[in-house]
Amino acid sequence: MRTGDFETSDPPLGRCPTCETAIPRSDLVVAYETPDGWPRMLAACPACEVTVHPL
Ligand SMILES: [Zn+2]
């Protein structure tokens, strides 16, 4: 059934490096910057059920 639930204004955070599942923004755990100034994100993969760095 097409309800448009996946047509949100927010794109996914990225993909799980393990299973390549798209990780929605709602699964963001924490966002931070490394000492080098690179933005990094930790998000919970809905498929692996672990926290990963979205690609
Ligand atoms: Zn995964």
Series of secondary-structure elements, N-terminal to C-terminal: EEEEE
Portion of residues within helices? under 10%
Instruction: Give the N-terminus to C-terminus distance in angstroms.
Output: 29 Å
Number of helices: 0
Written account of the structure:
- It is a single chain.
- It is built from no helices and five strands.
- The chain has 55 residues and is mainly β.
- It has one domain (14-52).
- It starts with 13 loop residues before the first strand and ends with a strand.
- Zinc ion binds next to loops.
- Zinc ion (ZN) is lined by residues 16, 18-19, 21, 45, 47-48.
What keyword list fits this structure?
55 residues, mainly beta, three-stranded antiparallel sheet, 5 strands, 33% strand, binds zinc ion
In short:
This protein has 55 residues and is mainly beta. Helix content is 0%, strand content 33%.
Task: Chart the SSEs and their pairings.
Elements: E1 14-15, E2 22-23, E3 28-33, E4 39-44, E5 51-52
Antiparallel strand pairs: 1-2, 3-4, 4-5
The structure holds zinc ion (ZN).
